[in-house]
Amino acid sequence: MSPAPAAPPRTPAAVVARTAATDLFGTRFPVVAGGLQFLADATYAAACARAGIIGFLTSNHFPDDASLRAEIRKARDLCGDLPFGVNIAMLPRSSEHERIERIVEVVAEEGVRFVETTGRSPEPYLPVLKAAGAKVMHKVPGLKYAEKAQSVGVDMVVIVGWECGGHPGPNAIGSIVNAALARQRLRIPYLIGGGIGHGAQVLAALAMGASGALMGTRFLASTEIPAHDGYKAALCAASENDTTISLWSVRNNARTLINETTRLVAELERANPDAGIGPLLPHVSGAAARRTYADGDTSRGMVYAGQALGFVSKPQSVAEIVEDLIAEFAAARAQLDACF
Ligand SMILES: Cc1cc2nc3c(=O)[nH]c(=O)nc-3n(C[C@H](O)[C@H](O)[C@H](O)COP(=O)(O)O)c2cc1C
User: At what angle do helices 100-109 and 65-79 cross, to 10 degrees?
Assistant: First the structure.
């Protein structure tokens, strides 16, 4: 008797496109919602899961183990069998004040299955995470860092380009260059992020060898994001032309909405590029971002957002955004097919 054929990997019912990423996460569409500090919580991650993608709740703004543990348990309750992940954003150099080791331990103890790391090498934390059965996706702002991450044994990498909201790194390389070069240099599955907000871009990323696309900005105005309506309205009114890069003088490039703060910070950086973070800190702290999320006033503070704002025009639920992405993906595929 011949052996039974191997069972295919478990994937949800209506899979739209199957890749190494959808197989790894058990999702139906190869889009990943990256961590969003102060914004990506259990409710948001669960909305992503129900829409057929995976979302990562952010861990480093929880002040203690108990509050992080409670949020992870809430995500598990809301998601049931569906996948979610936890984002661990590290500073480029470890500091005595950070809680990364505790966060890693809580994530491992809670049996979180998917972890998105970023900021510096996750190598010291891989043994603990892997022993707990977690799959680690490391996010980097350039291919050379992706190659390093591959060499230390992460399961997947994400390369974000210069267009991205948040921290695009020092190299000013765009996503379309990253996507095609990554295919030549990486052996492990990779995602492309930075400026992606349309389903045709997801298809293009797959065509260039990626296993999917990671997005942040496209989801910022979604109804499940816990922020003031005024903030979301400002994002919807903004376009791809309304962001800028600051903090280059302290080698911590950040892409945010152009506003009073970025104009002031630009003056300070131009006037004294060697002054370090000291004079900039009062203007760029996380407290200002939290104020914006609470009161909706985007005229001040570092309001992280990327060029994918060009695709954000109205508040929508995560499910509606994913359905739009899927329809755009299908239309782009049909357009391609018509060429052959
Ligand atoms: C408001 C905001 C907050 C973010 N916070 C985090 C974070 O806490 N951890 C992290 O790894 N990435 C963070 N990012 C980056 C996103 O996860 C993602 O890499 C990026 O948004 C992708 O580029 P895009 O904005 O062009 O889609 C943030 C991005 C934004 C816009």
Answer: 40
